[in-house]
Write a structure and sequence with these properties.
The protein has three domains: 2-89 and 278-307, Rossmann fold (3-Layer(aba) Sandwich), CATH 3.40.50; 93-173, NadA-like (Rossmann fold); 181-259, Rossmann fold, CATH 3.40.50. The radius of gyration is 19 Å and the shape is globular. It has helices at residues 2-17, 30-38, 46-55, 67-76, 92-95, 99-107, 122-126, 137-146, 157-167, 186-195, 209-212, 221-230, 245-251, 283-291, 304-321, and strands spanning 20-25, 42-44, 60-64, 81-83, 112-117, 130-132, 150-154, 171-173, 200-203, 217-218, 235-239, 256-259. It is 44% helix and 15% strand. It binds (~{Z})-2-methylbut-2-enedioic acid and iron/sulfur cluster.
């Protein structure tokens, strides 16, 4: 509608004035992803968002995602101003892995290599030997396992269990979960599969093992988009945040995409296939970040010593990914 058009026009103007670029996650609302594309920004997973921001000549990055993504961008681009539509956009994995208890867990197992998921605070990254995203976790754990390393894994227990099963690695698991993926239900998925017998099931490994076991393809957001493009099926049942449908449909325009079931049997879910924190990245909040760009309500700061330490395991991942 016209109010939205007005917001978009103002945001485009402000992006130019402030030499800023909009970097959005696949799980943000479709209109935000479209705006990032229209304005020369990017839509991607957390790793690519940070890399794009680092390599872009803009002075300011507007990170439409959740807080750990803003922090990772700042760690990789300390000379840039990193703004977020709201600093209240967090992640249940980050919240469920506070630095003090996690650090004590690591201290109790000094012979273990500490591998943490990107969905963590800068402080937790700084305590880790490796940072991984879901697109490269399997390869990195395989590599460490081949060197005979014992691993502490945090914070997502479902992703950790999936990787342990695939690699046979010795992994001590932090018990965190994503409130979005944890809601996918195997029983209801079985019923949906019966309704669409020719559909392939695409699953993000933050989902429970019972759901992962039913998948035709398991992978990170980018890997699932690729699967929708390359598998022959006409229909896909997708178990990840529904924000991904925007790019997946773009990549596979002739395919039918169906949401995997959450809840089921009338049960309610905490967040039915859409992350409540990703949803906070609306047009109004993006405009506010650009207008109040010097404000503590929007700007990401990472303490310098923390940054230096968090950069080590992050760079290790980026070098490994090359
Ligand atoms: O679940 C998330 O928040 C994901 C998939 C983040 C990412 O790495 O892009
Ligand atoms: Fe965190 Fe899950 Fe939201 Fe991703 S979708 S930001 S893992 S709560």
């Amino acid at each position: 509608d016209s109010e939205k058009q007005a917001y978009k026009a103002r945001i485009k103007q402000l992006l130019k004035e402030k030499e800023a670029v909009l970097v959005a996650h696949y799980y943000t609302d479709p209109e935000i992803q479209a705006l990032a594309e229209e304005t020369g920004g990017c839509v991607s997973d957390s790793l690519e968002m940070a890399r794009f921001g680092r390599d872009h000549p803009a002075k300011t990055l507007i990170v439409a995602g959740v807080k750990f993504m803003g922090e990772t961008s700042k760690i990789l681009s300390p000379e840039k101003t990193v703004l977020m539509p709201t600093l209240d956009a967090t992640c249940s994995l980050d919240v469920g892995c506070p630095i003090d208890t996690f650090s004590a867990f690591c201290d109790a197992h000094p012979d273990h290599t500490v591998v943490v998921y990107a969905n963590t605070s800068a402080a937790v990254k700084a305590r880790a030997d490796w940072v991984v995203t879901s697109s490269i976790a399997l390869e990195i754990v395989e590599h460490l396992d081949s060197q005979g390393k014992k691993i502490i894994w945090g914070p997502d227990r479902h992703l950790g269990s999936y990787i342990a099963k695939q690699t046979g690695a010795d992994m001590l698991m932090w018990q965190g979960e994503c409130i979005v993926h944890d809601e996918f239900k195997a029983k209801a998925l079985l019923q949906l599969k019966a309704q669409y017998p020719d559909a392939a099931v695409l699953v993000h490994p933050e989902s429970p093992a019972s759901v992962v076991e039913m998948a035709d393809a398991v992978g990170s957001t980018s890997q699932l988009i690729k699967a929708a493009q390359t598998l022959d099926n006409d229909t896909f049942i997708v178990a990840t945040d529904k924000g991904i449908f925007y790019k997946m449909q773009q990549a596979a325009p002739n395919k039918t995409l169906i949401e995997a079931p959450t809840g089921g049997n009338g049960a309610t879910c905490r967040s039915c296939a859409h992350c409540p924190w990703m949803a906070m990245n609306g047009l109004k909040a993006i405009e506010a970040a650009l207008v109040n760009d010097g404000s503590e309500q929007h700007e990401i700061f990472v303490d310098e010593s923390l940054r230096d330490r968090a950069l080590v395991p992050l760079d290790r991942m980026l070098d490994f990914a090359k």
